[in-house]
Specification:
By secondary structure, the protein is of the alpha+beta class. Helix content is about 45%, strand content about 20%.
C-alpha cells in the first residue's frame, strides 16, 4: 500500500486537559495514510508496538518500529504515526511533565537534587544530544506493566490515575536506566549497526566512538567483521535504501530526499544511487513498483 507523506505544516498540539492519556491504535484514518498533520503533545509520550509494525515521522526521518519496541518522545516534539494493517496494535501512553515531577518529589523524601537530575536526564534527550526521542527495539519485558496501565485506564477503578502514574514512572525509570546502560558498551555488534541505522543522516565516526566508548580502530574492525564494509559504505547503503523508500512510499522530490538522508552533494548522491541500485534515479522513478530493483540494505540490518 502506498502512503503519502504528511505535509510539514505548523504542528497541531493535541494536548488534553487531563494529567495522562492512553490511546490504542490503529484506527481507520491511520491505517489508510499517515496522520494528516504533524502533531505534538505536552506530554512525555511512550509508544509501544504490541503487535505488528509502526512507522513514525520524527524530525523528517521515518522510524520503523517492530513488535516489542518502545519509542520515548520528549514533550512538544512534532511527529506523525501510521500502521500498515488493521491487525497492528500500538499503545500510546502520555503523562504531563509536571505530573511526573510532582510525583517524584512526593516519593523522594525531600531529595530534590535527585529529582532534578532525573528530570534533566529526561528532558535533555539521554540517548543522543541532537535527538528528541529514545528508541529501544526490544522492550518485551515491559509488556506486562504496559498492559496493567492500559487495563487500569479503561477500568476507571478507584485511584486508577495514581496507579497509572506510578506505573508510568516505573516504566520511565526502566527505560532511562536501560538507555544509560546501552551507552557504555554494546551487547553485541548488532547494537552498533542498529545505532547507525537510526542516526545515519548526520552520523560521524567520532560520534559513534563517543557513544559506544570505542576507538576508531575498534569500530572499523567490528564493522568490517560483521558487515564486510566500512562506516562510509554502510551509511551510503542505508541512505540509498531510505531514498528508495521515500520514492516508493511518498514519491518524494529528490531535493527533499537529499535533506532527509543527509547528502549535501547532489552529484555524489546520483552516482551512489546508480552504483548501489543499478539504475539512475530518473530511470528508477519511471519504473513501476514491481519493476524497481530491490534496494534493501544488508540482510542483517
Amino acid at each position: 500500500m502506498a502512503f503519502r507523506s504528511p505535509k510539514l505544516r505548523t504542528p497541531v498540539d493535541t494536548t488534553e486537559n487531563s494529567e495522562l492519556f492512553l490511546n490504542l491504535h490503529p484506527n481507520k484514518s491511520i491505517i489508510e495514510k499517515p496522520t494528516t498533520e504533524i502533531h505534538t503533545h505536552s506530554y512525555v509520550e511512550i509508544v509501544y508496538v504490541y503487535k505488528g509494525c509502526l512507522h513514525q515521522l520524527i524530525n523528517g526521518q521515518i522510524i520503523t518500529s517492530k513488535e516489542g519496541s518502545i519509542t520515548l518522545l520528549n514533550p512538544h516534539i512534532p511527529h506523525a504515526v501510521w500502521v500498515e494493517t488493521s491487525n497492528d496494535i500500538v499503545i500510546n501512553i502520555g503523562i504531563k511533565i509536571d505530573t511526573i515531577q510532582k510525583t517524584l518529589l512526593s516519593i523522594s523524601n525531600g531529595n530534590e537534587t535527585q529529582v532534578s537530575q532525573f528530570m534533566k536526564m529526561l528532558l535533555q534527550r539521554p540517548i543522543h544530544p541532537q535527538r528528541d526521542y529514545v528508541f529501544l527495539p526490544n522492550a518485551k519485558h515491559l509488556e506486562g506493566l504496559i498492559s496493567d496501565m492500559f487495563g487500569e485506564y479503561y477500568s476507571r477503578r478507584f485511584m486508577y490515575e495514581k496507579i497509572i502514574i506510578a506505573d508510568f514512572i516505573n516504566l520511565l525509570v526502566s527505560l532511562l536506566r536501560r538507555t544509560q546502560e546501552r551507552t557504555v558498551k554494546p551487547d553485541d555488534p548488532e547494537d552498533i549497526i542498529e545505532y547507525i541505522e537510526k542516526h545515519y543522516a548526520q552520523l560521524s565516526m567520532e560520534q559513534l566512538c563517543q557513544h559506544f566508548n570505542y576507538s576508531e580502530r575498534q569500530i572499523r574492525r567490528i564493522l568490517r567483521t560483521f558487515t564486510d564494509d566500512s562506516l562510509p559504505g554502510l551509511l551510503n547503503q542505508i541512505k540509498i535504501h531510505k531514498a528508495c523508500e521515500y520514492i516508493n512510499r511518498f514519491q518524494m522530490p529528490t531535493e527533499e530526499i537529499l535533506q532527509n538522508i543527509g547528502y549535501d552533494n547532489a552529484n555524489y548522491f546520483y552516482r551512489t544511487f546508480k552504483t548501489i541500485v543499478g539504475v539512475g534515479i530518473s530511470d528508477y522513478r519511471q519504473m513501476t513498483p514491481g519493476e524497481r530493483p530491490d534496494a534493501r540494505v544488508l540482510g542483517h540490518i
